Amino acid sequence: MEETISLKELAQTLKKRLKLIVLLTIAAALISGIISYFVLTPIYQSSTQLLVNQAKTEQQMYNPAEVQTNLQLISTYNVIMKSPAILEKVAQNLALDLTPEQLSSKITVASEQDSQVVNIAVQDENPGLAADIANETARVFQEEIVTIMNVDNVSILAPAELGENPSPVKPQPLLNIAIAIVVGLMAGVGLAFLLEYLDNTIKSEQDIEKLLDLPVLGGVTTIAAGSNRPAKKTPVQKKAVRGETLGS
Asked: What Rg, from alpha-carbon coordinates, does the chain have?
């Protein structure tokens, strides 16, 4: 016999395990909130911008070919900016006890498509140090690129500044809690259906009919001893019989 599950049965299963689903969802949200607010260390970000563009004099005109050359050089600049040749001097100038690899992991260099502006973003637990690293990286790169590439087409467009009340970029507690609620809800629903699937006990006449493929003609209720009426909320026992008329 092919077994089918109706939407009504699914709804009954969810209603039956509603407390479990709610508890798992609340637990996931609480755990996420505790970790986000009290365990994870806040990380701050500061950024500076460089402009890759040859300095112009009043007599020089706009040269599209030169702009294209600068755009092609940006990818090379992005690599050089995070190289040990630059980061070693940054760490030395700021007296940081960090290797170039450790310093590189804090720095992100990116440029907008078809733009001559390069963004240097630094993330650190100390917002002031993040701004210092960003500015020093830009300054050292501007000085060293003249020697490394024999060009002088980099200028600092916007230095990194430390605001009065900097906000961390991560963790994001509200986002983490929202994700935890969704995950907890999904886990609760999944666990509810799993428990229902593993539960093979007989609880109703319908369960007997599905199990034995026989109609239920009657039931016998458990009677409490010394009482003339059925015990309140006691388990009910059902007896399945074959659909045949008993002969006298």
From this structure: 35
pTM attached to this predicted model: 0.69
Burial (Cβ within 10 Å: 0-12, 13-18, ≥19) of residue 14: middle
The distance of Cα 116 from the centroid of its chain, to the nearest Å, equals 32
Task: In whole angstroms, give the CA distance from residue 120 to residue 46.
Answer: 8
The predicted-structure confidence for 174-219, as pLDDT tens digits, reads as follows: 999 999 999 999 999 999 999 988 887 777 777 677 777 777 776 6
CB 54 within 8 A of CB 70: yes
184 CB neighbour count, 10 Å cutoff: 22
In the numeric block, which tokens belong to residue 214?
């026989």
Q: How far apart are CA 19 and CA 94, in angstroms?
A: 56
Which residue ranges form the domains of the chain, and what is each CATH number? 1-40+172-216 (no CATH), 43-170 (3.30.70.1130)
One DSSP character per residue, 169-190 reads: SB--HHHHHHHHHHHHHHHHHH
Cα distances (Å, whole numbers) of residue 176 to 92, 143, 161, 167, 171: 37, 42, 28, 16, 8
Q: How many C-beta atoms surround the C-beta of residue 133 within 10 A?
A: 27
Determine the distance from the C-alpha atom of residue 108 to the mean position of all C-alpha atoms in its chain, rounded to a whole number. Answer: 20
Beta bridge partners of 43: 170
| Cα 163 to Cα 101, 130, 160, 208, distances in angstroms | 28, 12, 10, 71
Helix (H, G, I), strand (E, B) or coil at 5: coil
Neighbour count for residue 119 (Cβ, 10 Å): 18
